[in-house]
């Protein structure tokens, strides 16, 4: 029953899609953009055609999120496990930031979007890094929604890095092991300058985290939809936010 509702929130009559209320908009929405490959397969197209279409969704959703008053949007574009995909698909995905910047920079500027990246820069090809850096630099002065792209990101990798960094500080004597707090761990995460996501969205009907923001999602509300990422639109985002607004967040309290 719960699983059915998780997968098909539209089956809950009191949570039917409508427009989200203006108050209580989630400040930070994180999205696992899934289903590009299946979208393409359904149309007899190569998987990469799904990624190309998925890139168009990004622009649409960031713009809509900005209009709704969402302050931060984190998008899972490439995980530390995605290197296992066929070489040609990995190469295509590594070209996405360049394609995105070439095509979308003017609209990012127009919409006052500030780009940042979350993930390890190790292993990213120089051309990918260059494009990401250009997006970050060119939008650095923008003051609207923050678009945080998770590239070569893994939640466990992030935690291992945080533990190593704190271990080094313990070794150097700048902090005592017994004094390490949640705040110190957060400070070592890639997303240290962002609040934790209020809402996590995953498209395509998969109900798992796939190593995404393991620390940061501790108290986030989750919303899953069967819609494939290339088909995801502003109305779906409204629906997710509306469901979020009906949830009671207790953070372990009563
Ligand atoms: C998951 O679908 C999607 C990805 C692994 C890549 C998502 C990337 C983009 C939408 C473009 C990124 C753009 C920028 C600017 C970095 P899947 O391939 O796992 O789909 P499937 O589960 O149906 O096979």
From TrEMBL:
Mg(2+) binds at residues 34, 221. Binds 2 magnesium ions per subunit. Pfam families: Prenyltransf. The keyword Zinc does not apply. The keyword Magnesium applies. GO terms for molecular function: ditrans,polycis-undecaprenyl-diphosphate synthase [(2E,6E)-farnesyl-diphosphate specific] activity; magnesium ion binding; manganese ion binding. This is Isoprenyl transferase. It comes from Sinobaca qinghaiensis. The lineage of its organism: Bacteria, Bacillati, Bacillota, Bacilli, Bacillales.
